[in-house]
From TrEMBL:
Organism: Geodermatophilus ruber
This protein's UniProt keywords: DNA-binding, Transcription, Transcription regulation
Keyword Transcription regulation part of the UniProt annotation: yes
Matching InterPro entries: GntR_C, TF_FadR/GntR_C, Tscrpt_reg_HTH_GntR, WH-like_DNA-bd_sf, WH_DNA-bd_sf
Domain HTH gntR-type: 14-81
Protein's name in the database: Transcriptional regulator, GntR family
Annotated SMART domains: HTH_GNTR (SM00345)
Amino acid sequence: MADPPADEAFTMPPTRREAVLRRIRTEIVTGVLPPGTVLKDAEVAARLGVSITPVREAIAQLAAEGLIDIAPNRSRRVTQVTQKNALELIDVMAVLACAGFEWGVPNLTPSHLQRMRVRLDEFVANLRAGNLPAASAAGADFSTIVILASGNRELQTHVDLVVARTLRLIATSAGDDIWQVWVTGYRETLELLEADRPADAVARYRQIYVEYRALVETMLFRPPGC
């Protein structure tokens, strides 16, 4: 297992629970905690310098997100990614995100488009710098701006439940071809929105998930040596 980030880099957001949740989620998404890793409350608490309570709360949330499996004997392990659950996850994420995107597009303003441009630039810059957590966050925000414009908070709640798992899958399958699907797709989608071609933009956004699913199916799960 890769060494965890230095504890001195662990900065506290408003609550300890949120701090622990963000930290463990990031470690799972980036592969610092690979699939199958056993998580013990006391060990995680000692490493992060917090009490056991926020650790337990964070692990419960991550289990709800599908990032951690809790066995009948209460042992906790980072979830394994199989071809079946990976493709199912992409399908669910596509349905939710594309619905929110389509509903949000009619409500977009020039300010929304400017914010999307900023997040796209940050996405590309962080990819070039090798900062995958920051790149993933910027990429997710690109879509979130549009989904929130739909005004459907319930939909955003459901998107949030699967987005971390999707980011983990992207990180697991990360390669130039995988990332290029999102970079090109986002760029062309935004250009269509800026050209006042909303229907074409929605269609291009949907195509991102089609292309990504095909790549994950053929690249992430192909036999070694192929």
